[in-house]
Design goal:
The chain contains 1 helix and no strands. It is mainly alpha-helical.
Length: 84
């Protein structure tokens, strides 16, 4: 009968609404997780930039110390030659 069909249609509609609500919840959760992952990715990019700057500064320091060491070796050689 049409009354039974109406009940069936309403039950199907209720089930579909429930499924849609569940799917919307899943989408919202995934969007939040994606937002967290994106923040982590941005933080990782910033860390990489900091590490690159630190590495560059360390290389400059090493070059400066090597140059100072070479200057001291040259000075030592000059003084040694003067003494001899």
């Amino acid at each position: 009968s049409s009354a039974e069909q109406l009940e069936i249609d309403e039950a199907i509609q209720d089930s579909l609404k429930e499924q849609i609500h569940e799917q919307e919840g899943i989408v919202e959760q995934l969007e939040q997780e994606l937002s967290v992952v994106d923040e982590q990715r941005q933080e990782a990019k910033r860390n990489i930039l900091v590490w690159q700057e630190q590495r560059s500064a360390a290389r400059n320091t090493i070059e400066r110390l090597e140059q100072e060491n070479q200057n001291l070796q040259n000075r030592k050689t000059q003084v040694t030659e003067q003494i001899e």
